[in-house]
Write a structure and sequence with these properties.
By secondary structure, this protein is α/β, with parallel strands linked by helices. The protein has twelve helices and 13 strands. Strands 3-2-1-4-11-6-12-9 form an eight-stranded mixed sheet.
């Protein structure tokens, strides 16, 4: 099997049919399998996904979160490569077969992100630098960014100089549209399920880099059009955070999710330091394309 595509859904009935239909042309020439992992939607998402031929649907009994959903998909698939994709995305153009062939020639490349366009056709800055102390000041939701949107911390973290038209090394890519070798997830034992939502893609890419694999952005993979809003941010996250008690509880859950994700990154940072005290790290030098230290990268995750 060449490629396993894993789509984690939560109340995605309106989107999942078109998402799956867009994969028919995109997987042409590949031995591919598609699995939809549904987080107890209860809105007809499971039935809509099962109506598409050749799709395996896993209906989980409860909302286990995005990372856990990907892990369930990994457990029942066997492709040499794995693609994570949001249900509100449509894969239009590009060639997955060409990107897989490109990765076959570069065994050191473990993770690749593709171009993501918002509903208006604008490129989303989905390939970024690892978080640092500077990102704590200049992330998208900080007061500094609201007051000074062109501040150097935000520009560095969001890689605002990137054109998204060339193949280039990057630190991490959005889990809305993320391709990786099966060997990477095997070595990392999948995603860390401490991250119920937010930052699991940052953590996965960082652990992959620390294990010796490089991350890249490749414009030939896609573009993926996000039709439901900012793919991988509020629409899908809002679904995973929905508690059934109104918008106020949703926003509270989203805020708690970010705090929990940052806390989990900090816990990993502490464990890494404890491990480093007893043995040398596998990758003592930082990547050429980031100036943050490894310790700094673990501290914060911002969207």
């Amino acid at each position: 099997m060449d490629l396993s595509i894993i789509i984690v859904t939560y109340r995605s009935r309106a989107d999942i049919g078109a998402c799956l239909a867009s994969l028919r042309d995109a997987t042409r020439g590949l031995r591919a399998e598609i699995v939809v992992v549904d987080n107890a939607s209860g809105d007809g998402t499971v039935e809509a996904a099962r109506a598409e031929p050749g799709v395996l649907v896993l209906a989980l009994p409860q909302n286990a979160g995005f990372g856990a959903g990907i892990n369930r998909g990994l457990a029942v698939t066997s492709g040499r490569y794995v693609l994570w994709m949001n249900p509100d995305a449509r894969l239009v153009g590009g060639s997955l077969a060409a990107v897989l062939a490109w990765m076959d020639e570069r065994p050191d490349v473990g993770v690749v992100g593709g171009k993501i366009l918002d509903p208006g056709g604008a490129v989303q800055r989905s390939a970024r630098a690892f978080p640092s102390y500077g990102a704590a000041l200049g992330h998208r939701y900080s007061l500094l960014t609201r007051w000074f949107p062109r501040n150097p911390f935000s520009r560095r973290y969001l890689r605002e100089q990137a054109t998204y038209e060339v193949v280039e090394p990057v630190d991490w890519v959005s889990g809305a549209f993320l391709l990786h070798r099966r060997a990477v997830s095997d070595a990392l034992h999948g995603l860390d399920e401490q991250f119920f939502m937010y930052c699991e893609d940052v953590d996965f890419c960082l652990r992959a880099w620390h294990g010796g694999w490089e991350g890249f952005f490749h414009p030939g993979m896609g573009p993926g059009h996000a039709v439901g809003g900012r793919s991988r941010d509020e629409p899908q996250r809002r679904g995973h955070a929905q508690t059934g008690h109104g918008k106020r509880d949703v926003h509270r859950a989203l805020g708690a999710g970010r705090r929990d994700a940052r806390r989990a990154l900090l816990d990993r940072h502490r464990r890494d330091h404890a491990a480093a005290a007893s043995s040398p790290p596998q990758r003592p030098q930082t990547p050429a394309h980031t100036s943050a230290s490894l310790g700094q990268k673990r501290l914060k995750c911002f969207r």
